[in-house]
Amino acid sequence: MSFLHNKNILLGVTGGIAAYKSVVLVRRLKELGANVQVVMTESAQEFITPLTFQAISGNPVHSSLLDVEAEAAMGHIELARWADAIIIAPATANSMARLANGEADDLLTTICLASNAPLAIAPSMNQAMWSNRATQENLQTLKSRDIEIYGPASGEQACGDVGEGRMLEPEDIVEKLEALFNHQLLSGVRVMVTAGPTQEAIDPVRYISNHSSGKMGYAIAQAALEAGASVSLISGPCALQANNRIQLTHVVSAEEMMTAVHADINDIDIFISVAAVADYRVKQVAEQKLKKHSDSITLELVKNPDILSSVAALDDKPFSVGFAAETEKLEEHARQKLVSKKLDMIVANRVDKSDSGFNSDYNSATVIWGDDSQRFEKSTKSRLASDLLQLIAKHYINNKR
Ligand code: C5P
Question: Is the separation of the CB atoms in 41 and 63 below 8 Å?
Answer without folding.
Answer: yes
